[in-house]
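Hi C.,

You asked whether I'd gotten around to modeling the 186-residue construct. I have! Everything is below, sequence then structure, no commentary in between.
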Amino acid sequence: MHAPSLHGDLVTNHIKAVRNLPGLSGAKVIFVPESNTGFESQHYCKGIIDNEIPHVYLMDEDKKHVGMRTDNKAKKQMAILFNHALRARVVRFHPLLVTTDANETSSNMKKVLIDQVSNFKRKIKVRKVSGEDDGELRYTEIYSGKFGGRKDDQAMGALINYLGYVIYLQKYEEIYKSKKPLWAPM
């Protein structure tokens, strides 16, 4: 990944690219970072604030975590919901899909996203418990797109944002209607 000082630049460049699309110059952005990424989500937020990007609202899962947590249970739910939404054509790729990676085209990024979402698999990890239950087997379900050395970063971004969108709609009146942006002009 990138150095922490660059994380904010990545996000702000992407927001700026999206806002350069026709009709989106003043769009409100709901920012949904992954919360278990070694404080990267805080670096993203700091970048938005330092670059004075207006109308960006942070979605956080709770008061302790910035963004959405992505444990195995959440990854499984996100992947299943997103796959279903793609198949039902609830989620579609924008004809002007934005990528800020100079080495990627929009059409290639669409292929990368589909390939990465398709790579998500369920694996059962078996381990022996020590202590009172010495020798007893425990099973842990792991749901990931990284098996076999694959990457899932773009897919995780899409999954997190889709689930974030669903939660945003469900909790708009209760939480997000009165939420303040990360940065606002004085």
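If it helps when you're writing up: The chain has five helices and four strands.

Thanks,
B.
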